[in-house]
Here is the input.
Amino acid sequence: MTDNTQLKEDIAFVRAATERSEAPSVPAIYLLWALLGGVGFALVDFVDDLSWIGTYWLFAGPTGFVLSVWFGIRASRSAGFRDRQTGVRQGLHWLAFMAAGVLGLALVQAGQLTWAGFGSLWVLLLGLTYFHAGLYLERRMMSIGVLMGGAYLVTVWVPSFGWTTAGAVLAIALVTGAFLGAPKRETAS
Here is the structure.
C-alpha cells in the first residue's frame, strides 16, 4: 500500500512539474499588438495620404516583432523556462505571416490586386495566423483568429469606418486574451 501511495505522489509531482514547465504567457505582447493593430487599422479610415499606412507598418511591424521577442525572452527567463526550440518555433510562425503578407505585394505589382484588397489580404492572413497559433502555440489565440476572420469581412464590405471597426475588434480580442485567457497558476498548499 505504501508503494502505491508513493507512486501516486510521484506521478502528482511529475504532473505538477510538467504543468509548470509550459511556456509562460506574456500579456505584454498581446497589449503591444492591440495598440499597434488598433492604431494601424484606424489609420486607413483617418489619413488622406495612404502612403502613411505603409510607412506606419514598415516601422511598427518589425519594431513590434522585436519587442515581442524581447518580452517573450524576458518572461521565459523570469519563469525559469529554457526551451529555445519553442521560442524559435513561435518566432518562425509569426515571421511566416509577415513573409506571406510581403509576398502579397507581387499581386499588387502585377495588377491582380488593388491596394485596398492588399490591406484586406493582410487581415485575412492575420486571422489565419492567429487561428493556427491557437492550434499549435496557445489555445486562446484560436478565438482571436476567428474574430479576425470576421474583421476581414468588415474590411471588405463595410465602407464607412470598416477598418476602425476591424482594429477595435483586434484590440478588444487581444486585450481580452491578455487578461482573461491567461492560464491560472496553482499555488502550493
In short: The mean pLDDT is 87. The chain has one domain: 24-179. DSSP finds eight helices and no strands in the chain.
